Amino acid sequence: MNKEIEFLNIISNTLADSAYLGDDCAYLKEYDLALSKDCLVEDVHFNCLMSPFEVGKKALLANVSDILCFGAKPKYALIGLGGKLDENFVKEFYKGLNEISQRYNIKIIGGDLFRADKITISITIVGDCRNRKISSRKNAKIDYVVAVAGEFGSSAQGFYDLKNGIKENYFTLLHKTPKLQEKIARDVSKKTEFGYAMMDSSDGLCDCLYRISKRSNIGIEIEYDKIPKKTLNKDFVLFGGEDYSLVVCLHRNDFKKIKGLIEIGKCIDKKGVFLDGKELKYGGFEHFE
Asked: What region, left, alpha or beta, does residue 204 occupy, with left being phi > 0 and alpha being psi -120 to 50 degrees?
């Protein structure tokens, strides 16, 4: 796998209690809350191709997506912002945050401002799990349907287009402001009877499949032609990140209840991830390269 997973294994083996680790959110059962934290760094997760307003929107959307994919409802957020900041960046960044917080009825309840060599954003988000069935990557089982919502590869195509001087088209707009699958994620959390595994494709479709496969100790096979996509670049579709589309492994009876999910494969009694009958080597966004 990649260096991030190696580091996560070290952390898990070092801590006296790692029971809360393993998913994009931690579930606090005694409070029925989900918590998640995400960081974005200039020239790694965003650059001058995006305005401060767009960076603010995307930063919060990325965190909202984690909460939605866990099966929870986003409620509160704390924002850390550092770097060589000026008044205009701070104002426009918070305008972007405010637009998304208003859209999802999230309250910004505090945070931190700090000095750094590059603009760095750290967001902690809290979600309400009441009356919802939450996700876990360990919940996938043999014969479960592998289903998706949204499309794959469009954000990677948009980033490629931006770097090559295309300022605005379908793909660049999706890269800057991804579309989250809020209703479908909510329906999965409220209508399913059996346990399920749901992630967003922030680090790519292949990354999602491998993480669920490994954590659930099952194999996954998918068909490329069934994957919803608009770009013609196969690598973008399989390995490109930041689409924030849904990837869900769930019982077939539950799959039939959720409108909008598209079946692309199934969970199998085998180790690894397979595309059209051939093993798919791991690939996705590398945080430490």
From this structure: left
